[in-house]
Amino acid sequence: MTLFLIDCVVLIACVMMQPAKNDNDAMSALNGGAGDLFSRKKARGFEAVMQIVTTIVGALFFILALALVFVSTHK
Predict the structure, then answer these.
(1) Per the UniProt record, which residue ranges are transmembrane (predicted)?
(2) Which among 35, 38, 57, 65 is least surrounded, fewest beta carbons within 10 Å?
(3) Domain range for residue 1?
């Protein structure tokens, strides 16, 4: 349970540390954001590291959640 709570706090911190993607202009809203399909750039540097860390911590969150359910039902 302690590992799960620590993972929750780390996951929240990882999500909050990710840079914002502010591409919300009026033209994007009018054309449905179709221009973003091919203009996306690969994440580099800090953004790439935070995406990887968030994915790992999120996967660990689900694994620990399933483990807690399994342990609580098999007492």
Answers:
(1) 46-71
(2) 38
(3) 1-74
